């Protein structure tokens, strides 16, 4: 089944699990047991799929979480420097890499263990969220989902500005500060404008 309206093109797919026709860019999630509109991936940390309706809050979550964790890591820097001055670099490295072992063997105090544990958690979390933010930032600018990126599909790359508006709405600059700001998405999650649909008729006929 196919249709078109004002440059939008959609080709309905079929989901054998749901036993129904589904819109393009949607995907079935075996964990959620349902087809998700413009499915990106199933986030195991959040326990739900990231798709058309929650991609913007997901991006903001990555940005704010990585920012907060990085900030806390920097704030803990002076305490770590004091630890380095009081002990050898090897002792501090062992504390940061194996805090539980150092605590259980009685080589560090509970306060030093707590500092190392919080520092490790913040640095690891900041790196994880920062890497996720970089990856999804790249997808955002390209107008791709993770599934499309893995298969090298660029059908929905409408250009930088259009891609940002398609995922974040018209107030795409401000939603980074507050993800629940009124910035309605231009599409309905069922039909999507394609790159081919944006080409002038003369160029489209050549392709
Ligand atoms: Zn399905
Ligand atoms: Zn899911």
Shape: elongated
What is the terminal-to-terminal distance? 22 Å
Radius of gyration based on Cα positions? 23 Å
> Could you tell me the strand content as a percent range?
5-15%
Task: Give the cofactors and ligands.
Answer: zinc ion
Helix content: 40-55%
Give me the side-by-side strand order of the main sheet. Answer: 1-2-9
Low-confidence parts: 1-8, 201-207
| Helix run count | 9
Rounded average pLDDT:
87
The biggest beta sheet is recorded as: 3 strands, antiparallel
GO biological process, one term: protein targeting to membrane
EC number: 2.3.1.225
Family: Belongs to the DHHC palmitoyltransferase family.
Protein name: Palmitoyltransferase
Topology:
Blueprint: E1 2-5, E2 8-11, E3 13-15, E4 20-22, E5 27-29, E6 34-36, E7 41-43, E8 48-50, H1 55-75, H2 77-86, H3 89-97, H4 99-104, H5 110-142, H6 146-150, H7 160-168, E9 192-193, H8 195-198, H9 201-206
Antiparallel strand pairs: 1-2, 2-9, 3-4, 5-6, 7-8
Helix pairs in contact: 1-5
The protein binds zinc ion (2 copies).
Residues 15, 17-18, 28, 35 line the site of one zinc ion (ZN).
Enzyme class: transferase
Organism: Castor canadensis
Transmembrane segments: 61-84, 96-117, 123-141
